[in-house]
Amino acid sequence: MPGAKTRYLQRLQEGLQRLASASAATLDIKTRYLQIAFNYDVGLVKRVLPTIVRSRRILIEAGTPFIKREGVAGIRVIRALWRGHIVADLKTVDGALGEVDMVRAAGATAATVLGSSPTEALDLFIAHCTQLGMVSMIDMLGVDDPLKAVRQLKRPPDVVVLHRGRDEEGTRGKVIQYRHVNRVRSKFDVLISAAGGVDIKGARSAIFDGANIVVVNLVRPGDPWEGIRTDSDVGAMARQFLATIE
Questions:
Q1: Angle 27-158-237 from CA coordinates, rounded to 5°
Q2: For 179, phi and psi rounded to 5 degrees?
Q3: Residues near 223 by Cβ (< 8 Å), separated by ≥ 6?
Q4: Taking a C-beta distance cutoff of 8 angstroms, is the pair 182, 196 a contact?
């Protein structure tokens, strides 16, 4: 017979999974969403996340550096504080089934895979997300032709992410490639997400250029990236971004 601690952990895990399932409704292509990315540690999550307004238009991202630092336990911390969508920015390259299972069990309702991954990995990733009721997102970081990448798949993802990487932010001429929005949308009924050095002005431009989701990083003072500064009133800034993209 399992002990009291084991039973408690099992009930907690089951509760997290039920909560994630309740949040995993398909995103509405007519709605404009704000995705707020946490890339540091759980300390920041615990301090800042409770200040962010509860809105179906806000997605909370467990960023790639956050997941590497905190693991799936970090996603559980976010789930304990947030009832809406949680994006696990895995940037999966291989082993799609196992990685999706891990973050799904921790409470994520969406996950990312790199568009440069093998077609087999992309197809498995999308199919497994669909099976689990999760939102599948293909991150096109470093992909020259997102439409070509999607055309090779058995089925399209829910979201195509046009992404300028953080290491590219300081490079002259490196911008989010919005020219791909209409190309992709002309063939596939998918949402478009814009990520990479987005501030208020950039959020406005993203929506004007056809994005459905604007990804904004939380950025510590002294770090060279654009986003919402962690020493600001993050809750107020989130409301400002929501109003800007409405």
A1: 50
A2: -60, -20
A3: none
A4: no
Reduced to 3 states (helix: H, G, I; strand: E, B; else coil), residue 138 is: strand
Instruction: Tell whether the model's pLDDT for residue 11 goes beyond 50.
Output: yes
Domain ranges of the chain: 4-245
User: How far from chain centre, in Å, is Cα 104?
Assistant: 13
Tens of pLDDT, residue by residue over 154-206, are 999 999 999 876 766 666 656 678 889 999 999 999 999 998 878 899 899 99
What is the topology classification, in CATH, of domain 4-245? TIM Barrel (3.20.20)
**129-152 pLDDT, tens per residue?**
999 999 999 999 989 999 999 999
Angle between helices 119-131 and 96-106 (to 10 degrees): 30
Read off φ and ψ for residue 163, nearest 5 degrees. Answer: -130, 125
The strand pair at 191-195 and 86-92 is best described as unpaired
The secondary structure element, H or E, covering residue 203 is helix 200-208
Is pLDDT of 73 > 80? Answer: yes
Residue 101 to residue 72: CA distance in whole angstroms: 11
d(CA 153, CA 174): 27
Alpha helices in 24-107 (DSSP H): 42-48, 64-70, 72-81, 96-106
- Residue 235 tokens read as 């809750």
pTM for this entry: 0.88
First-last CA distance in the chain: 53
Would the pLDDT of 4 be above 80? Answer: no
Distance CA 238, CA 198 (A): 13
Q: Does residue 242 contact residue 202 with C-beta atoms inside 8 Å?
A: no
